[in-house]
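[Meeting: bench + compute handoff]

Bench side (C.D.) handed over the final construct sequence. Compute side (W.E.) agreed to return the predicted structure before the next meeting so the bench team could plan truncations. Sequence as handed over:
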Amino acid sequence: MGTDALRLLQKEAEPTEFMDASIQKVCDLAISRGVRLLVDAEEQAVQPGIEAWIMKYQKYCNSQTPGRAIFYGTYQGYLRSTPATLARHLETARREGYTLGVKLVRGAYLKTEPRHLIWAEKEETDRCYDEVVEALLTRKYNSMLQAPTKDTPAELPSLDVIIATHNRESVRKAHAIRMEQALRGEDYDVDLSYAQLQGMADEVSCELLEGFENAESNVGASPIAAPNVFKLLTWGSVQECMGFLLRRAIENTEAVGRTKDSQVAMFAELKRRCRSAFSRSN
């Protein structure tokens, strides 16, 4: 669709008949195979148009799979407007009767977006991200993700969540909420997945799986299933992938600190494997 789609998105216009048919064909194939479609967020110059298309195809896809989201939109935690946008989309999904697919990221356009659209401090972005996650996993509006009207039900409608972050603390907080729910014997009516880039925060991905693995034997009557942990692999030529990789590098400016954590984690794993090999040899 290329630049034709871009022009329509900038104008917040509907897709053409050909584009609509093509997108629906992809949606139908995803539904038939039981796989998810994730639409990335972009700069605010085109994002309102993207959101309009996302809601159109969320309704088309997710209405056909009751209780499960096939089509997901992406929400950027560094934008001040994100809680209000997400609350509005949740209520649209409630009203139209489908499960909302929510992929939550921190944001990739810090260097180019108008500064007033973004939280002033990183700590504010962290708070927004973590409190939105808490609201989604508990299905309750809170001080960050606020109900759009006073008549809005306190309980959030049906939704599925992908926590797409390399931030260890955010992952641990989400994990802690799930563990507390398990200990209280609560049913999990929010499907939860995690996602990180291949080669980045791999120790966080492994820690997630290891932690849930250990938890299964400790929770008792309410075991918690190991989560879906996705690693995103960029596919294509260097030229095709460069723009995406550069945006991810800008987004992950805290990666220098995580590099040290990764190094420590890899050395610890190397020691463990060496001890294990030595024990077997004896």
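W.E. noted at the follow-up: Residues 255-281 form the longest helix (27 residues). C.D. will use this when planning the next construct.
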